[in-house]
Amino acid sequence: MSFFRQFGDLMMMGARAHAKWEIETSQRIMGDRKRLVILGLLLIPILLGGIAFAADATGVLPAMLGGKTAYTPAFYTPTIFFASIGVGIVAGLITGCIGAGGGFIIAPALMSVGVKGILAVGTDLFHIFAKAIMGSVLHRKLGNISVSLALWFLVGSIGGATLGGYINRTIYEANPILSDTFITTIYVLMLGFLCSYALYDWYRSMHPVQKADKSGPVVTSAGTLTGLAQKLQGISLPPMIHFDQGVIPGGRKISCIFLVAAGALVGLAAAIMGVGGGFLTFPIFVYVLGVSSATTVGTDIFQIIFTAGYAGLGQYAIYGFIFYTLAMGMLLGSLVGIQVGSLVTKVVSGQTICALYAIATSAGFINRAFALPPKLAKMGYFSMSKETAKMLDLVGNTIFFVVLGSFALWVFYIFFTNIRTLKGEDQPAHLKEARA
Description:
The protein is mainly alpha-helical. The protein is built from 18 helices and two strands. It has helices spanning 2-30, 33-42, 44-55, 78-98, 106-112, 117-134, 138-141, 147-174, 176-206, 227-233, 256-273, 278-289, 293-314, 324-344, 350-378, 386-417, 419-422, 429-435, and strands at residues 240-243, 252-255.
């Protein structure tokens, strides 16, 4: 239980750090007219794809619109585009309102509506890269980036992303059903752990412990390190990388081997799951490598852009595994959802937020868990009737979309019924009760 709690706490810290980046990036885009113009320009290919689709009477579109050289929408309908906006809105609401985990439901949501797993992964990576590059403020963050740390980390992350992309593509080329099964299994394991920990975290928030709990993770500051970080920094394997000179006197140093290994793990996870990797970078840097929080935040922003960009473009786009229409729709939806979700946090209690995260991750887990047996049956591991397979898919998808749809409606209800509070004209009810 102690290991489960510590590992869960670290994963949550990473997820929250990544969500914070998503929120800041979205607010930066929405608050800048130039970036909004760029976003509008990115939507032009979608409109052109729609015109081409509507004008093509013979059903033979140019090769660039599909197949292995798909750089523009492989298929276009208004329904697909608006559905992707809905997925982005819900993911944004989760990220903004809960502060963690919104990106984990994108690939399951796309797979639930029939998008191939490898296409869902590549599309999600491209969506993250587009958001990162549009909201980038690297020129303001350079003071918090250790260039040597970042470069060695990127050596590993690019290698890991290359391997992850190769694994996904190889499995898909061998058997598309096996590809979906593999990606679904990864999400079952990840979401299973996250939803278990989220339920446990919600239980803890409902039953707070009065005395200090010494079994939790060690919280580091600029001058302290975890035991593991001290051991790793004490191993002298050249070349040694110096960092944090501006944080503590004399700075610190660590072997580049550990940075490359950390980057490889993050890049592998990003390429296989279709996530930016930020949820892993924060706990690995702070608690495993012993990097200060300030340097970690800057380096994380740096790596997300290059890791997601390389994985999305270099490992998926050039092979035709990116659905541009979906990516742009998700980007639009998430920008709106994050703004609304982050405002709602001002009028709901912390316990409610814990409960919401538990519900959202549990819905994602149930969805993928119900989808896994039919896929395993298709692979021939056991027999299952088509009716049973359809029933499991229907139950999993229904629970998933009903829960997330209800969550979205609830958040928007809270938002619109608390307009006065959000404008500063009133105080949230839970704050009034606390003061009373």
